[in-house]
Amino acid sequence: MEINTFGFNGLSDIQVMASREKYGANVLSYKKENPFLDALKKIIKEPMVILLLAAALIYFLTGKTGDGIFLSLAVLIVAAISLYQDSRSRNALEKLKDFSQPKCSVIRNGMVMDINSGDLVIGDYLIVEEGKSITADAVIVHSNDFSVNESVLTGESLAVYKDSSSDENLIFHGTTVASGLAIATVQAIGNKTRLGRIGKSLESIKEEKTPLELQINNFVKKMVMVGGMVFLAVWLINYLRFPHILDSLIKALTLAMSILPEEIPVAFTTFMALGAWRMMKMGIVVKQMKTVETLGSASVICTDKTGTLTENRMSLTKIYALQTNQISNVEGHVFDSATQ
């Protein structure tokens, strides 16, 4: 059965190739980084990990090889768990993105065909109908009782009616058709869409440390400062009493190491990794280990009501009869013309 094209021929194969060559594919692409190196840099920059590495180095210098090996192994184990968790989360998100990539209907060569949304190009005649997700920004050229839910962009759950002859003739990537059918000419794809620009703007937002991370890092930094001052004081006193630089240095380092709380970062990072591991076993994608602590410390969750806690619709639950002065519970009751 041939589907109606409403008199539109759409792009030819040559025009599609030319448009894709000029404007690119309909994909959301963000800053390019090496995921492994990026995750490794984040681990190395952590003050707690720096403290552990410094402590291990000092243990090796002072001849305490066993303690140095223990701390080095602790750092390697924590880093391995973190990198593995990051890799699992990244792969899961990639698979989820591929799975959720919708198909779309377009008019090409005078025929309606279904294609992957990533193959959509500027100039395509996109067909959208009730229940479908819109895969690009476009201008409506034909519509029939057409409305769109734009809550993903505006937060407003009420559908917006759109028509080719009105000011509301634009449809946007990521929104959902609430009713009707429309044919629209694609004007923007990928990062050039309104949703894509929002995604790009989020790249500038820096990740914030959790309250527990800030407290532990602050504590560790203070202990390092105290340890450094003790080291200098002990080294200076020993050197003035016994002018042996190496012997004084070893004694000062040994005393300073007794002050540094190297066990705290090991325990903290290990518990975070184990928490993320347990959540992963329950099928939860944990992008960052610190999410575990953040969720655990949440006491109040603020959320928008409509569409989240409510369904944006009214239903009849009780009827008050004026003549009998009674209230009847009618929730779940089906009404028809014979009983009304």
Automatic annotation (TrEMBL):
The P-type ATPase A domain, residue ranges: 100-203
Organism: Pedobacter suwonensis
Pfam families: Cation_ATPase_N, E1-E2_ATPase
UniProt name for this protein: ATPase, P-type (Transporting), HAD superfamily, subfamily IC
One Gene Ontology term of the molecular function aspect: ATP binding
PROSITE patterns linked to this entry: ATPASE_E1_E2
Keywords, ordered alphabetically: ATP-binding, Membrane, Nucleotide-binding, Translocase, Transmembrane, Transmembrane helix
Domain of life: Bacteria
Keyword check for Ion transport: no
UniProt subcellular location: Membrane
Membrane topology field: Multi-pass membrane protein
Signal peptide span: none
